[in-house]
Specification:
This protein is about 55% helix and about 10% strand. It is mainly α. It has two domains: about 1-50; about 50-100. The protein has a two-stranded antiparallel sheet. Helix 1 packs across helix 2 (about 50-70) and helix 2 (about 50-70) runs antiparallel to helix 3. The chain is flat, with a radius of gyration of 17 Å. The structure holds zinc ion. Zinc ion (ZN) binds near residues 7, 17 and 51.
Length: about 100
């Protein structure tokens, strides 16, 4: 079984990209498979090449999420540390908005 995956990022003129990708059905526990990683990498290449602003936004949020996870491994004495962690989490989880702003 093959499925279509369609890019929903808005272009500069406000129209939706609509680029379609055909791929085989993803396996169970996709996140643990080479096929799952290849699927994401292929889509990522499209975003990087065709939507550089969205790609930059994704990178920024990825780094924020990474920082949030790292800070979660530590007790922070500085009261601003908790706020910093919260801000990183907020930035990271705004990722669903990428397609609306790109
Ligand atoms: Zn696209």
């Amino acid at each position: 079984m093959k499925y279509l995956t369609t890019c929903k990022i808005k272009k500069a003129d406000g129209s939706v990209c609509g680029q379609e990708f055909t791929a085989n059905e993803l396996p169970d526990q996709t996140e643990q498979t080479k096929q799952g990683r290849a699927f994401v990498e292929g889509l990522m290449k499209h975003v990087e090449k065709k939507h550089p602003e969205a790609y930059l936004e994704i990178q920024t949020r990825w780094l924020s999420f990474l920082g949030f996870l790292v800070l979660g491994c530590f007790d922070l004495q500085d009261p601003k540390g908790a706020q910093f962690k919260q801000t990183l989490e907020n930035v990271a989880y705004q990722s669903r908005e990428v397609t609306k702003t790109a």
